Structures are given as structure tokens and as C-alpha cells.
Amino acid sequence: MTFNMMLETSAPQELAGNLSLQHPGLFSTMVEQAPIAISLTDPDARILYANPAFCRQTGYSLAELLNQNHRILASQQTPRSIYQELWQTLLQHMPWRGQLINRRRDGSLYLAEVDITPVINKHGELEHYLAMQRDISASYALEQRLRNHTTMSEAVLNNIPAAVVVVNEQDQVVLDNLAYKTFCADCGGKELLTELDFSRRKSDLYAGQILPVVLRGAVRWLSVTCWPLPGVSEEASRYFIDTALPRTLVVITDCTQQQQQAEQGRLDRLKQEMTTGKLLAAIRESLDAALVQLNCPINMLAAARRLNGEDNHNVALDAAWREGEEALARLQRCRPSLDLEECGLWPLQPLFDDLRALYHTRFNNGENLHVEMASPHLTGFGQRTQILACLSLWLDRTLALAAALPDRALHTQLYAREEDGWLSIWLTDNVPLIHVRYAYSPDALNAPGKGMELRLIQTLVAHHRGAIELTTRPEGGTCLTLRFPLFLSLTGGPR
Questions:
Q1: Which end of the chain is less congested by CB atoms within 10 angstroms, N or C?
Q2: Which residues form the PAS domain (predicted)?
Q3: Do the Cβ atoms of 404 and 432 come closer than 8 Å?
Q4: How confident is residue 424, by pLDDT bands cut at 50, 70 and 90?
Q5: Rounded to whole angstroms, what are the CA distances from 58 to 40, 77, 114?
Q6: Could you tell me which residue, 322 or 110, shows the higher pLDDT?
């Protein structure tokens, strides 16, 4: 009978018996040469046989082991309950598998994975115990090292304030930390990467990008950066290939505070530039008024000189006229320039956004300030900050006058559209027109609502070669219309 026929026709017990008959020394050779430690004991656990692997593992020779109780390997480090469970199982003629901490001949300890099988004769009587054990100390140490590493990595990841997430080639999350889970919870349980439109933007995020996202009803700014990770296949069928599609490491940092600080800094600088522009316009307006007032007596002196005749020189009259002319020239030279920045084209929507940000709190969080444009693509031309200052001056005037009308809830609306090469901006409110008439007072330059705002607006609009119109609304209130040329050709070139 061939070996293949024996496999097909025989039970395992019969197969072992047939092999032992045909090859008497086969099983002893196999046991002797086996790399696993094998021992055979009597029912009282006295060692009757141990193979060379057992001797190498324990450090004992065969002569030292024979007739010794298996307790010779006990280290007193294994809990008593383990041995109790072991013997309860074996006494029921059932095999036992478990781990024991054994002691070698030199006193060193090792962790053994032990399989003990009762050997029962044909009469059902226990004759021997067959034990096989492997030293798993190294694999256990490696396993614990891996577990400690995993625990430490998880602890580090979960204590990092930034959100860390790893996605596969389908952009599915395969690893994330506590910060990322918190972000997802703030998104109402939705995947944060989905809210950030990660799949579409992924190619742009390797260089880092700051993206807005709504979390718990508030806009947060998140810095998103990606790095590719090499992939290792977890499928056993790819053991010899060891290739997998790369994964992506995504780090998300909440930079809302920094973004808000940067934005507030920008708005503060813009506010300072607007204040400077308003101050220069006020100085220029005051000097222009002084020049107009001074021109009158100087013109009278000039007329008196002409009436006196060229032959009848009046020294005092001539001196007064010359000093007046010199004073006019000095005042003219003192007029500040309003060209604080270069003229150019710029989108109108960001300008209105800046205006709303500057007056966000003063208009009840922006609820009473409505902005509308005929087209989202409208542009303006000129000095952006100066035009923004014009709008700011009118809003300051509106807020100041509305404060004196406690029975009136302020409503202000801005509307913009392009008309034949001109940008027209309408500012309408429900403050009566009578309150905007100019009435000079000593604090008109620094107190809003005194009429000086309109004068400064006129100065700035005129500098842009624009036009201004002030009308009463039929339903009550005021409408200020500002028109600015959109092209340099309309302005006649730089001023």
C-alpha cells in the first residue's frame, strides 16, 4: 500500500499505527529531531522522556530530568489558580493549553506556551501525559513592545491639540485622534473631511491651506496640511508582494484665533488709514474755507490799490496787500494731499465686507445694516480707502443722529450698481433730512452728526471727480447718492 493510499483510506490513529509498523524508528526520529520541546510523564507528572529540544530549552540534561517531577521547572511566578485549572482539566482526561512561567537550570525565567495531552489506553485508563512547550518569551516581549508602542502612540495622538487623521486611497478614515473626533462632533456627527470637501481640494492641501468651516453655528478657520504615507498591504495573499496604495496623513489645526487676530489687525490698520484720510480731508476743508475767507479782504485791498492809481502809492496799502498774497500762498502750500494710495480697480464686495466688519457691533451685529449689489462682480476705481472713508463718514453721522431719536429704530441700506461707466452707491436710512444740514460748531471737526461729515464727504468725492446728491425719501428719511467714475479716462488722468 502506497503512502497516498494510506492517507485516503485510513483514520489518523490507523495512519499512525501503520506508519510505526512500516517505519519502526520514524516516530522516535521525528520526536528526537523536532524543534519543539516534548516531554512524557507518568500520571504523577514524573518525567519519563524528554527530547533534545526540551533539554536545550530548560538547560537540563536528560539524565538530570529523568524521574524528576515536572515541578522542577516551576518558578513560583505562575499563579496557583493556573495550576489548579491545569489539573482540573487533565483529571477529566481533557487536553490543556496555557502559559506558564518556568525556570531554567541556570535560574533564568522564560514564558512557555504549554500543550498537555492525557494518553489513554484502550481500556480508558490514564497512562501518560504528553507535553509540548514553546519558549514564547521573545514573541511575548515583541507583542508587549508593540502594545506599549501602540498605547503610547494613541496617548500622544489623543493629547495633540491638532486633529490627526489618516485616510486611504478612497479618502476613507482609517485612523484618527480625539481632536478629530471632537471636530466631527462639532459638525453634528458629520465627517469633518467631508465638510471641508477634502476629496476635491486634496491636491491643493499638500502645501497647506486655511479653510473656513461652520462648527456649532460659528465660522472656524482650520489649517489643513497633507503628507503621503507609504502603504503596506495587510492581506496575507500579498505577503511576497508587500505593496499597497499609499495613504494620506492629514493634520488639521484650529487657527481661528490667529485668523481673527490677523483680521482684527488688518481692520485696525484700515481704520487708522481711514482716520488719517478723514483728518487730512478735514484739514484741507478747513484751509479751503480759510482761503475763501481770506480772499475777500485781499480782493478788497487789490481793488483799493487800483482805485488809488499807479501814481499815488500808499505804502501801507501795498504792504497789506503783499502780506495777504503771501499768506494765501503759504496756506495754499499747506493744503495736504489726499493721494494716500494709488488709484486702481478693485472688487466692490470686499469693500462692503470691510465696511460691515467695521460697523458690525454698532449696527446691532449688522442686523440694521443691509448691503445689496446689482451684480456680485461690481468693481470700483480710485483710492479704495478714501471711498471707504466716505461711506464711514456717512454711517458715523447716521448713528450719531439716530442716537438722538430714541423712538426711531435705525435702518440703513447700501445699494450699488454700475451706470454708463460710473459706480453709483445709494445710502438710505430713516433719519430725517433736516438733521443733516450743515451747522458749524466749535467741535464740528471731531463730533459726528454736526454737519462736518457731509463737508468731508464732498471733499473726498470731489477729489475723485465724482458727484454727490442728497435727497429726502418719500416715506421719510434720507438718501445720499455717491457717484464715482470707473475709468481713468473719465477723470482726465491723475490729479
A1: N
A2: 23-69
A3: no
A4: very high
A5: 15, 16, 13
A6: 110
Q: Which three cell numbers stand for residue 366?
A: 449688522
pLDDT digits (tens, 9 = 90+) for 131-167: 999 999 999 999 999 999 888 888 888 888 899 999 8
Same topology between domain 34-140 and domain 344-491: no
Domain boundaries defined on the chain: 34-140, 160-254, 260-334, 344-491
Q: What is the CATH number of domain 34-140?
A: 3.30.450.20
Give dist(CA 382, CA 482) in Å, integer.
13
Task: Please give the class, per CATH, of domain 344-491.
Answer: alpha beta
Backbone angles phi, psi at 65, to 5 degrees: -90, -35
Per-residue pLDDT of 318-360, as tens digits, reads 788 888 888 888 888 888 888 888 888 999 999 999 999 999 8
Of the candidates 469, 466, 333, the residue with the CA atom closest to the CA atom of residue 394: 469
Those residues with Cβ within 8 angstroms of residue 227's Cβ, 6 or more apart along the chain or in another chain: 206, 248, 249, 251
* Predicted confidence (pLDDT) at residue 448 exceeds the cutoff of 50: no
CATH classification code of 160-254: 3.30.450.20
CB contact at 8 A, 291 and 328: yes
Task: Give the containing element (helix H, strand E) for 468.
Answer: strand 467-472
Cβ density class 34-47: b for 16+ within 10 Å, e for less: eeebbbbbeeebeb
The H or E element spanning position 246 is strand 244-254
pTM (2 d.p.): 0.61
Which of 70, 84, 77 is closest to 37 using CA atoms?
Answer: 70
Alpha helices in 171-215 (DSSP H): 178-186, 192-195, 198-201
